[in-house]
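Hi there,

I know you've been waiting on this one. I reran it after we fixed the sequence typo, so this is the corrected version. Both the input and the resulting structure follow.
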Amino acid sequence: MQVKHWLVKDVSNNIHNRDAFGKSLLDFQKTGQENIMKVIRLEDGYVDELPASFYFQPFEEWSALDRALVQWMTGRILDVGTGAGRLALHMQENGHDVVGIDISPSAVEAARAIGVRDVREHNILDGSLDGEIFDTIVLLGQNLGIAGKHANFGSFLKTLASMLAPGGRIIGTQVNWERTTKPEHLKFQEDNRKAGNHPVEIILRIEYDSYSEDFAWCLVNQLELIEIADDIGLVPEAIIDCCDLYGYILRLPKPVDS
């Protein structure tokens, strides 16, 4: 696949201005004024837009899928990629012990400002939280995609599983990417296949104001996720199909008494 480089020149100009996503959230938290992030697929220049206000929605305005998944969340909770902290705050207000983590210092600041008590700057790809154990690990917003490449999903899930109490759950959302009918997405997938890559391994750029950041992202469909989970000993307890998206609940079995 021929990778376009028409945006790469911007990186050198913004090398000191990372954290575009977090800055957008923090500005909205401080001012209440809507702002829009651009999300650019660098391989072909496809652009999507994200309003900062989405990450501050009250529970009643969340998607039906996200609200359904909340019912499976129990015990001590780790919210991976907490963003503005809306999930962490909701679960905290409902009596749960919640830890929110994010790589963005500005997102961490925004989450603290709305009232999340335990939110930390941490990259889960660097490893677990010093032996801390959780009953539920949550990756809403398709945050399993931070694995970056399809080949990394197994090791990423192993890291998460190592942080679970016996019987604990990994809960999140992903995209039914193979169902798309959009020509621009179908062409992107086919170009990836021709290049010998997984169809939805992506390099994304988020731009906001003078800030810019690039990161690798990947999607995994239902059958792929079930196979990967099974290989590392996680039980797919439930899959909730919701058209373009699906929710998953993966459980770490309790040891069988000898």
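Quick highlight: Residues 1 and 195 are 5 Å apart (CA to CA).

Best,
R. S.
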